Recover the amino acids of this structure.
């Protein structure tokens, strides 16, 4: 009946790989991830099975960490998008769950199946797919969202899962397998009970953190909507004032013309035109983008900041809501950064143009001298109150949804935010 034991081990190794791949984030496409995993992990599984057949489970269980766990850790670390506590937590959690199932099924088979491996084989045959189904059905989506949205706080969880894995592996296999140490079995059983309770506590804590993130993101969206409405209200009020003042402008112009002062009348008309420009089309022909830029231009004027805008786009801009959201988040962050600087250092540049089928946006502002951000790094935030720290991740998510990307970094005392958005074919102005 040892064939059942060998098959159950092979089945378990294969499914722990599936369980981990359901939860971790690869930096490659799904197809490339599967191919690379098969090329690397396939031979490792074959060698492990050969070792089990030749040396037996007792010996292989003692050297499992250096022969299987460590090579897998190195390979998936290379493959992973997250090279930090997120990856360690996910890796150790999948391995610990698998080790827990292996231990439970073997103990049950030893005491109730006469070590004929039938109960162990059936248990593993059923439990591993069941755990994978539960992970895919209930855990994968919120867990992926949590990894995407929450940057900090993973180190503690990663350390706990790594400790549980080592504790479970050592207490199960050393000095001999746990079934050969009846006196240690009660302690080991308490570890088996404590582990899922601890994991449940961690999952609840992470889920609450996810709910908090969703709430803060919703508050951020509401604040952005409030800002957009305020922009529209300010413009409408300015337009009403201009309409009210038009009677006076008309009377003055009529008086100048009646007196034969044509040059003065032309100069007066030029002044009226400049005032009209401040209401609409001040920065570009697109009313929505112009309103967003005008709103933050007023904020920058209140900060006495030197702001230069080079907007080479018009009414043909696509994805207006998304573009305005990107601009609002980027300009809001820039205003916050400038506010903490001396007045003479408050400088910002905004550029928008088309290039080879992409809409390019660059927001460049002066920043603290001690701020160093490399391309691809997480930008730190000094704000502790709720509703902050989501601007740049929001920009990145929006850009990726539009088949684009975002990059931010510091250079020569400036913070640069570059965003590129793929425009649909046939749009006007796209080179």
């Amino acid at each position: 009946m040892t064939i059942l034991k060998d098959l159950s081990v092979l089945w378990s190794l294969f499914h722990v790989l599936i369980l981990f791949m359901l939860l971790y984030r690869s930096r490659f496409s799904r197809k490339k991830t599967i191919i690379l995993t098969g090329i690397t992990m396939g031979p490792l599984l074959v060698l492990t099975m050969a070792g089990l057949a030749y040396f037996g489970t007792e010996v292989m269980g003692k050297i499992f960490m250096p022969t299987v766990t460590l090579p897998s850790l190195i390979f998936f670390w290379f493959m992973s998008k997250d090279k930090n506590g997120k990856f360690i937590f996910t890796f150790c959690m999948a391995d610990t769950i698998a080790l827990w199932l292996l231990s439970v099924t073997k103990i049950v088979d030893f005491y109730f199946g006469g070590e004929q491996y039938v109960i162990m084989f059936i248990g593993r045959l059923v439990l591993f797919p069941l755990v994978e189904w539960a992970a895919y059905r209930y855990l994968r989506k919120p867990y992926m969202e949590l990894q995407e949205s929450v940057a900090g706080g993973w180190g503690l969880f990663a350390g706990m899962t790594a400790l549980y894995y080592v504790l479970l592996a050592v207490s199960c296999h050393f000095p001999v397998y746990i079934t050969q140490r009846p006196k240690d079995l009660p302690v080991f059983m308490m570890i088996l009970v404590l582990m899922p309770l601890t994991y449940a506590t961690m999952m609840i804590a992470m889920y609450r953190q996810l709910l908090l993130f969703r709430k803060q993101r919703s508050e951020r969206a509401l604040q952005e909507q409030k800002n957009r409405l305020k922009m529209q209200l300010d413009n409408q009020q300015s337009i009403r004032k201009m309409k009210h003042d038009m009677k006076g402008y008309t009377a003055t112009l009529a008086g100048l013309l009646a007196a034969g002062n044509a040059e003065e009348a032309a100069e007066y008309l030029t002044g009226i035109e400049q005032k009209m420009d401040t209401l609409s089309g001040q920065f570009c022909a697109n009313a929505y983008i112009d309103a967003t830029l005008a709103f933050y231009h007023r904020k920058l004027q209140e900060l006495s900041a030197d702001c230069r805008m080079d907007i080479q786009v018009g009414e043909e801009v696509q994805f207006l809501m998304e573009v305005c959201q990107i601009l609002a988040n980027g300009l809001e962050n820039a205003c916050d950064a400038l506010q903490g600087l001396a007045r003479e250092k408050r400088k910002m540049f905004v550029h928008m143009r088309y290039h080879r089928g992409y809409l390019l946006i660059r927001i460049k502002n002066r920043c603290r001298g001690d701020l160093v951000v490399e391309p691809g790094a997480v930008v730190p935030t000094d704000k502790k109150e709720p509703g902050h720290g989501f601007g740049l991740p929001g920009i990145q998510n929006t850009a990726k949804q539009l088949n684009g990307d975002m990059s931010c970094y510091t250079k020569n005392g400036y913070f640069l935010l570059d965003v590129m958005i793929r425009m649909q074919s046939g749009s006007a102005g796209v080179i």
